[in-house]
């Protein structure tokens, strides 16, 4: 009788431990599924992606799932703080959401010194520093080649990250400049002079007034040339 009583006590004592072990195993599986999903979704991002996901509360899930399916909720974005949904659609049907936070650590181009508006940036004007892209609003330059040779469209304070919208390509044609209009086609080539009505970078469309007063649109090229597309 005493042995039977001890066995009953032992079973009751081990049952919570078994349940806890099962919950831990289920939580670990879900966490692994979520982390794999986030890694796949962020594989295109530059630098190092650090994933911080909260351990899910598996008390919401009545039974374990053989193939949990991760998904991004409608309107969700894999950036900063967000949630990843996990649903089970086999014998155990349930859905839960796991809070996740990511950091995207990469080198970002910063102004090494104050840069005035209109200045064409040189190598000594910039410095690369590691930063978390999530904490910097807007699209920033991550490669010096994105910056060197470009012109600042606003004042850049020393130490600030340089955003791509704060730069433009240098103008190859100035407003009021005398330019040469060129047009080529099958068996012919035409060239005439004109006056640019606006400044333009290489490859941009610019309006030109020719010697008769007609306004013509063309593509700005280096050397004061505007190419008329046929």
UniProtKB/TrEMBL annotation:
Signal peptide: 1-21
Domain of life: Bacteria
This protein's GO CC annotations: periplasmic space
SMART domains xrefs: SAF (SM00858)
The SAF domain, residue ranges: 106-168
CDD domains: SAF_CpaB_FlgA_like
Major site of localization recorded for this protein: periplasm
Cellular localization per UniProt: Periplasm
Keywords, comma-separated and alphabetical: Bacterial flagellum biogenesis, Cell projection, Cilium, Flagellum, Periplasm, Signal
Pfam families, A to Z: ChapFlgA, ChapFlgA_N
GO biological process terms on file: bacterial-type flagellum assembly
Function of the molecule: Involved in the assembly process of the P-ring formation. It may associate with FlgF on the rod constituting a structure essential for the P-ring assembly or may act as a modulator protein for the P-ring assembly.
NCBIfam families per the UniProt record, alphabetical: flgA_cterm (TIGR03170)
Protein family: Belongs to the FlgA family.
Protein name: Flagella basal body P-ring formation protein FlgA
Lineage of the organism: Bacteria, Pseudomonadati, Pseudomonadota, Betaproteobacteria, Nitrosomonadales
Gene that this sequence comes from: flgA
